Amino acid sequence: MNNPFWGFCEWFYAFPEPPPRVRTKPMQVICVGLPRSGTESLQHALITLGYDYTYHGWDIMFEDTLHIQGWVRLARKKWFSQYGGGDCTITAAEFDALLGHSVAVTDAAASCFAAEMIAAYPEAKVILNVRGDIDKWYESAVKNLCHKINDQWGLWLLSWFSSELWWMWHVYERFLWMRLFRCSDSSLQSGLVYCGKFIYREHSAMIRGLVPSERLLEWKVEDGWVPLCKFLGKEVPHGQPFPRANDAAGFQGRIEDMLRKHRRIVFKNMFLSFACFVAVVAFVWKLVN
Fold it and tell me: Is 77 exposed, middle or buried (0-12, 13-18, 19+ CB in 10 A)?
């Protein structure tokens, strides 16, 4: 990922970035469980408890696309820096530039940078959200992350004709998911499919080793409100069922919404690219004949 080709692509697809965010409220909760571990349900629950805004990995792609380039820079600093001396430190100011409007964070935005966020925000409480059955987590992760996204070559092809789609694919499929699951090539299969359960266990063990017990809650969606509210010092919402979100159908719906949003610009750029290609071929053919 450090070769000139990707540097050129990042320059070619770059778009103007907004100014860095400024933190006005402290980061309070970091939810470091892997994707497909009840992350969106937990996001909704935290917002209900007053942690507004709680940032989710979906926000990188769907609500916060202007900051995607910033997430790629953090990923490069963590996994591809030539100047870190074999280590990586990301400061609170660097995270705040992307998360300054949030008081909590969950999903890939937190799990990919778990150790760095835990160190950057020492006062924040940490939730290790897990699945009760690791086999069900593995099945869900492979089905949704691999088969519904990573294996979709049509989606990969379309990404080359839209700056936003290109960065969406770039940040997750070349950086966050690929590094989180230690993929050895451009396919999630080499990491998630072959080693997913081992990586899941190792990630959980790392969190337990990094965070003192009084600062850490290990929690799953089935546990509901009570342990979560006790840990956070909040009242249990009266008469309100615990939110359930981001099931398989909802996940697929998000992907379809993304494609629908960008379809017009993608096909417009495909047509223009094809027209330019035909014009160049015709010009060259005319020169040589």
Answer: middle
State the DSSP code for 190.
G
Contact 145, 188 (CB under 8 A): yes
Query: What pLDDT sits at residue 249?
Result: 60
Domain that holds residue 23: 4-232+240-288
Beta bridge pairs of residue 105 = 30, 55
According to DSSP, residue 26 is labeled: -
Which of 39, 83, 84 is closest to 60 using CA atoms? 39
CATH code: domain of residue 141: 3.40.50.300
Distance CA(280)–CA(21), nearest Å, equals: 44
- 43, 119 in Cβ contact below 8 A? no
Compute CA distances 167 → 18, 70, 200, 222, whole Å: 15, 11, 26, 35
What confidence tens digit (pLDDT) does each residue in 236-266 have? Answer: 998 899 998 865 566 666 667 766 777 777 7
The stretch 168-197 carries a mean pLDDT of 88
User: Which residue type occupies 97?
Assistant: A
Q: For the chain, what is the domain count? A: 1
Scan for tokens 């600093």, then name that residue.
77
With a CB cutoff of 8 Å and minimum separation 6, the contacts of 92 are 23, 27, 120, 121
DSSP, residue by residue, 38-97: SHHHHHHHHHHTT--SEE-HHHHHHT-GGGHHHHHHHHHHHHS-SSSTT-----HHHHHH
pLDDT-derived band at 112 (thresholds 50, 70, 90) equals very high
Q: What is the pLDDT of residues 195-218, one digit of tens each?
A: 999 999 999 999 999 999 999 999
